[in-house]
Amino acid sequence: MKEKPLHVAIFGAKGYPYVYGGYDTMVKELCERLVKKNIRVTVYCHRSLFKERPKQVNGIDLVYMPAIESKSFTQLTHSFFSMIHACFSSANVIFVVNSGNGPFGLISRIMRKPTAINVDGLEWLRPKWKGIGGKYFYWASKMATKFYDQLINDSDEMQRIYLELFNAPSKVIAYGSNPGLQADPTLIQKWQLEREDYYLIVGRLIPDNNADLIIEGFTRSSSTRKLVVVGDVPYKDEFAERLKNIPDDRLLFTGYVKDQQELAALYRNCYAYFHGHEYGGTNPAMLKALGYDCAILALDTPFNQEMLQNGKHGWYFQKGQKAISTVIEKAEQSPEAMQQFRQTSREGLTKKYDWDHVTDQYIEVFKELASR
């Protein structure tokens, strides 16, 4: 008798094939590879984000769950409904992303469904979750360590933090990357840009990513290059509006760049890529910068030290406008060093960041959980 394929249910991102942020990309890359390896996959999608709702795309089963639509509760209520549905489904294993979904592991624990959760970064420290939001994420992350069968982190530093804070061991499976992607250099002409004539920031305009410090530090520098800021926020926001209204002709805000070829061209042709993300583990934007041969200037954090192999693939700056101005002046005076970083950056994408290797590690986890 033919053995039924392993069936994995996945939720916590926006759905498939919706690609907006890091978790959405991870779900897409992981699921497409799982299906090719004869693993049945069900992805839970935010119903309100999908006008068309096919039951299957690229061999991946799709379930469209409702949510209470609000800035604070959309994700949590969607995950709550998805967990209940998944527990009553034929899935052998439930895989959840986002530590905010930690408490829902109690449902699967009661229903005796094997679970794994990818908890990502230090959500409770992010400025956008001030007060009760930060307290919730800390508590939810702690609950994730108690209710889920397998905890997954995407960096060695996050593994250390979870062990230290919650006395919770976890498995490290890095976020994947697609190195060596080509880019049409003429696409940057859309913004009247020239090769190596600009610095680049990619990320949401939120305090967590320190775009304000980088922009204000840049405006204090004497650089004749531009600073191109790719990203925005999907709502009216005082912080983002203040940055966009800084009076400096060298600043260029593109908003969201959804065309992946255009985004690739912006990465590949910049003089240097600025990375100010502070609270995460393995960061997707940094992986793209490495894969697109960027010279990288990164905030000095343990996560960024780990990703750039302690300075092998970029320079670090401290958190402050003066430090940013200083690193810009250093970069301006060191074109040979910038060129060397561009030539060797792809070497930073070691096997652990390869999507196929990442997928194989997840399959090991899913098979082990299903056999319990």
Question: How would you describe the shape?
Answer: globular
List low-confidence stretches. Answer: none
Question: Main beta sheet: strand number and arrangement?
Answer: 8 strands, mixed
Radius of gyration using CA atoms only: 21 Å
Gap between N and C termini, in Å? 22 Å
Strand order of the largest sheet: 3-4-2-1-5-6-7-8
- The H-and-E topology, N to C, reads as EHEEEHEHEHEHEEHEHEHEHEHEHHH
Structure report:
The protein has 372 residues and is an alpha/beta fold. It has two domains: 7-176 and 354-371, Glycogen Phosphorylase B (Rossmann fold), CATH 3.40.50; 189-350, Glycogen Phosphorylase B (Rossmann fold, 3-Layer(aba) Sandwich), CATH 3.40.50.2000. The protein has 13 helices and 14 strands. The strands form two sheets. An eight-stranded mixed β-sheet has the order 3-4-2-1-5-6-7-8, sandwiched between helices. Strands 11-10-9-12-13-14 form a six-stranded parallel β-sheet, sandwiched between helices. A hairpin with a 2-residue loop joins β3 (56-57) and β4 (60-65). α3 packs parallel to α4 and α6 (211-220) crosses α11. The chain starts with 6 loop residues before the first strand and ends with a helix.
Q: Main traits of this protein?
A:
globular; 372 residues; transferase; alpha/beta; Rossmann fold; 2 domains; eight-stranded mixed β-sheet; six-stranded parallel β-sheet; glycosyltransferase activity
Short summary of the structure?
With 372 residues, this protein is α/β, with parallel strands linked by helices. Helix 1 crosses helix 13.
